């Protein structure tokens, strides 16, 4: 891989990181807003926990993907599976 390819890969990764931080910022602002709305309108039922939890799971998975921490079905798994299928196909055709 030459320098221009490395540069474009790095730039692409920076874009993904920026996207994750934007997602995290929007999540934080919206969740705080929902907490305020919930506590001022109907404090007897704390419904804000639902979006906090489910959207939070989405944010966690987004971060795991961006920072290449996918212990299951990550980039390494994908590369290994591609090589495995190519080897299998090569062995069947010879």
From TrEMBL:
For the 2TM domain, which residue ranges apply? 9-87
Task: Indicate the transmembrane segments per the record.
Answer: 20-39, 45-64
Q: Which Pfam families match?
A: 2TM (PF13239)
Please provide the record's keywords in A-Z order. Membrane, Transmembrane, Transmembrane helix
Lineage: superkingdom: Bacteria
What is the name attached to this protein's record? 2TM domain-containing protein
UniProt source species: Flavobacterium caseinilyticum
State the organism's lineage: Bacteria, Pseudomonadati, Bacteroidota, Flavobacteriia, Flavobacteriales
